């Protein structure tokens, strides 16, 4: 169970580390003045947010071998699906945060001689981070639970092992233990985001 929990943690942290930067890139594409880029990004968001994650996992595991003859290991196929899926959701969270900043602040910064880059990183970004923390916390807690979907393509994470043990031993104890693990992990995630919100409370 401990080994399987490490796989679950790997899926969680790798998804966050890769999907957050990708979400920012997609966000800027979504807000681009170039209509072609906006349309491409919009189509990507529609696919990722409009289809179930479980289908995306199956697609990214089986499609490369069927279409291109390239076999992707189960674990990395799961990471690819999770990253692309969560980047789409993070993109919309980032976009809503950026667009919530009053235009007057940018105009005032321009008058004071700030460049666009300085305005974004020193004025807009700190406020954006404060505003997106609650929805980001919710998405991270959802990610903890969604890691169980990796078992769909045979990744030996916590839920898959618990399910197998329950079937083999005719006992619900493994499922109960897995549930406690997910609960503890979500408790830690919730605590971390609560503390971050308090540290940024000086913007209130």
TrEMBL record:
<dbReference type="InterPro" id="IPR000515">
    <property type="entry name" value="MetI-like"/>
</dbReference>
<feature type="transmembrane region" description="Helical">
    <location>
        <begin position="6"/>
        <end position="29"/>
    </location>
</feature>
<dbReference type="GO" id="GO:0006865">
    <property type="term" value="P:amino acid transport"/>
</dbReference>
<keyword id="KW-0472">Membrane</keyword>
<dbReference type="InterPro" id="IPR035906">
    <property type="entry name" value="MetI-like_sf"/>
</dbReference>
<keyword id="KW-1133">Transmembrane helix</keyword>
<keyword id="KW-1003">Cell membrane</keyword>
<keyword id="KW-0812">Transmembrane</keyword>
<dbReference type="GO" id="GO:0043190">
    <property type="term" value="C:ATP-binding cassette (ABC) transporter complex"/>
</dbReference>
<keyword id="KW-0029">Amino-acid transport</keyword>
<feature type="domain" description="ABC transmembrane type-1">
    <location>
        <begin position="1"/>
        <end position="193"/>
    </location>
</feature>
<feature type="transmembrane region" description="Helical">
    <location>
        <begin position="75"/>
        <end position="94"/>
    </location>
</feature>
<dbReference type="InterPro" id="IPR010065">
    <property type="entry name" value="AA_ABC_transptr_permease_3TM"/>
</dbReference>
<dbReference type="Pfam" id="PF00528">
    <property type="entry name" value="BPD_transp_1"/>
</dbReference>
<feature type="transmembrane region" description="Helical">
    <location>
        <begin position="170"/>
        <end position="196"/>
    </location>
</feature>
<dbReference type="GO" id="GO:0022857">
    <property type="term" value="F:transmembrane transporter activity"/>
</dbReference>
<protein>
    <submittedName>
        <fullName>Amino acid ABC transporter permease</fullName>
    </submittedName>
</protein>
<comment type="similarity">
    <text>Belongs to the binding-protein-dependent transport system permease family.</text>
</comment>
<feature type="transmembrane region" description="Helical">
    <location>
        <begin position="41"/>
        <end position="63"/>
    </location>
</feature>
<dbReference type="InterPro" id="IPR043429">
    <property type="entry name" value="ArtM/GltK/GlnP/TcyL/YhdX-like"/>
</dbReference>
<keyword id="KW-0813">Transport</keyword>
